[in-house]
Amino acid sequence: MGADQVTTVEIDPDLSAQAARNLKAAGFSPRLVIGDGLAGYAETAPYDRVHCTCAIAAVPYAWVEQTRPGGRIVAPISSASAGATSSSWTCWATAPQPASSPAAPDT
């Protein structure tokens, strides 16, 4: 996979600019989008993988729609009682289906 196959979404323009500088210094040039990551980025979907680096309470359906069947969504899921835990789902059709069990996400 080359950098031309990677899209990153950041809501903060200053942080996105710093990320662009850091990535360029490291020799990478992915597509950088300023926007709400919860909405994903449909223009270059479908994606093989969606990786989220901030804790979320639930997987946004936009990510499911933008992940190809059999693709993976990986995100830290946060709940008031459990704190943050890392979870992973495999997407089949237009609904996330856990890879190991119909009852719980992969961990």
Model description:
The chain folds into 2 domains: 1-35, no CATH class; 46-107, no CATH class. The chain starts with 6 loop residues before the first strand and ends in a 10-residue tail after the last strand. By secondary structure, it is α/β, with parallel strands linked by helices. The strands form 2 sheets. Strands 3-4-5-6 form a 4-stranded mixed beta sheet. The protein has a two-stranded parallel sheet with strand order 1-2. The protein is globular, with a radius of gyration of 15 Å. The chain has helices at residues 13-25, 61-66, and strands spanning 7-10, 31-34, 47-51, 67-79, 83-92, 95-97. InterPro entries: PCMT, SAM-dependent_MTases_sf. Keywords: Cytoplasm, Methyltransferase, S-adenosyl-L-methionine, Transferase. Belongs to the methyltransferase superfamily. L-isoaspartyl/D-aspartyl protein methyltransferase family. This is Protein-L-isoaspartate O-methyltransferase. Pfam families: PCMT.
